[in-house]
From TrEMBL:
InterPro entries: A_deaminase_dom (IPR001365), ADE (IPR028892), Ado/ade_deaminase (IPR006330), Metal_Hydrolase (IPR032466). It holds the Pfam family A_deaminase. It catalyses: adenine + H2O + H(+) = hypoxanthine + NH4(+). Residues 8-325 form the Adenosine deaminase domain. Zn(2+) binds at residues 13, 15, 192, 273. This is Adenine deaminase.
Length: 334
């Protein structure tokens, strides 16, 4: 039985610039006179071949957004598309570094995104929250500036702090000070690891940082003791299976460790990461996992419940979302 498309979904891991459709990036590049030659394939998708060229393409696409209204449109468009796929709550990653590189004041960047989220909430009922990230490959100094910028502009929609980027570069400890500032400001933490690097990269994060969640973390599966530790400590993985397959971390969805991690007691959630870069969407992630692993709606709903429990939102928002989750019924058979 195909998964009911209105099954409630919660996404905890999507980079807002990585959610930009190529057509929008092309249009904005034209409007702002920005050279995007080589950024697209002949078929109109993003051109990249491996993790490094993906990050480079992402950095270039991010540069075409130049005004608060550009970001408001992007957030509204993404949340609208997510709501149409059954998403009731989404946490999007934003990047002070990318705003700085585009020459847009962070206050305008954040304000535009928050405005787009407010429009989406008013029009479609979807609730959006924001997690500023530092980018590991831009280095510890840029990270320090990014965290200071983020903390100088706290907004009711900003609910956490984290790090993405190239986990092959620098040591996690190089970013401990930046994370400490965010932690002291009361923001819960997440950090990408265990995506292109193995289990040791995940262990390095949980040894060095008081994170509640790990972005990806799936290669923890390569170390049984680490899997037990993640389960015991209740650290939640923001799993993005389509991204992992697109980037060649696993050859096929059927080889993905999501279910093995879940069955070992690790808390796992489902997200899309950078949907148009990886030919996916949050709805497609849920549908593909249900089909590949033959999971009934109740087991798929459990991913949403885990995500709700791990969301960085306030208690009142969590309670409202819990009511919506519990109110959902699968369509009657026949
Ligand atoms: N999958 C990913 N890994 C690391 N950094 C990212 N930034 C955007 N997507 C990312
Ligand atoms: Zn990511």
């Amino acid at each position: 039985m195909p998964l009911p498309s209105d099954l409630p979904k919660i996404e905890l891991h999507c980079h807002i610039e990585g959610a930009a459709p190529p057509a929008l990036v092309r249009r904005l590049a034209g409007r702002h006179g920005i050279d995007v030659s080589g950024l697209f394939t002949k078929d109109g998708g993003y051109a990249w071949t491996d993790f490094s060229s993906f990050l480079a393409a992402y950095d270039r696409a991010a540069q075409v957004f130049r005004s608060a209204e550009d970001f408001a449109d992007l957030a509204e468009t993404y949340l609208f598309a997510s709501a149409a796929e059954g998403v009731i709550y989404t946490e999007v990653f934003i990047s002070p570094d990318h705003a700085r590189r585009s020459g847009i004041p962070y206050a305008d960047y954040l304000g535009g995104l928050a405005e787009g989220m407010a429009r989406a909430e008013a029009g479609h009922g979807i609730i959006g929250r924001i997690i500023p990230l530092i980018e590991r490959h831009f280095g510890p100094e840029a990270a320090h500036e990014a965290v200071r910028t983020a903390l100088a502009h706290l907004h009711p929609r900003v609910v956490g702090f984290g790090m993405a980027g190239d986990e092959r570069m620098f040591a996690v400890a190089d970013f401990a000070r930046a994370f400490a500032l965010a932690h002291e400001a009361g923001l819960p933490l997440t950090c990408h690891a265990g995506e292109v690097c193995g289990a040791a990269s995940v262990a390095e994060v949980i040894d060095a940082l008081p994170v509640r969640r790990i972005g990806h973390g799936v290669r923890a599966i390569e170390d049984a003791a680490l899997v037990r530790r993640l389960a015991e400590e209740g650290i939640v993985l923001e799993v993005c299976p389509g991204s992992n397959v697109a980037l060649g971390v696993y050859p096929r969805l059927a080889d993905h460790p999501l279910i093995r991690l879940r069955d070992a007691g690790v808390k796992v959630t489902l997200s899309s990461d950078d949907p148009p870069f990886f030919g996916t969407s949050i709805g497609r992630e849920y549908a593909a996992i249900a089909e590949t692993f033959a999971l009934p709606p109740g087991e798929m709903l459990a991913f949403t419940q885990t995500a709700l429990d791990a969301a960085f939102c306030d208690t009142a928002t969590r309670a409202r979302l819990q009511t919506r989750l519990e109110g959902w019924r699968p369509p009657a058979a026949g």
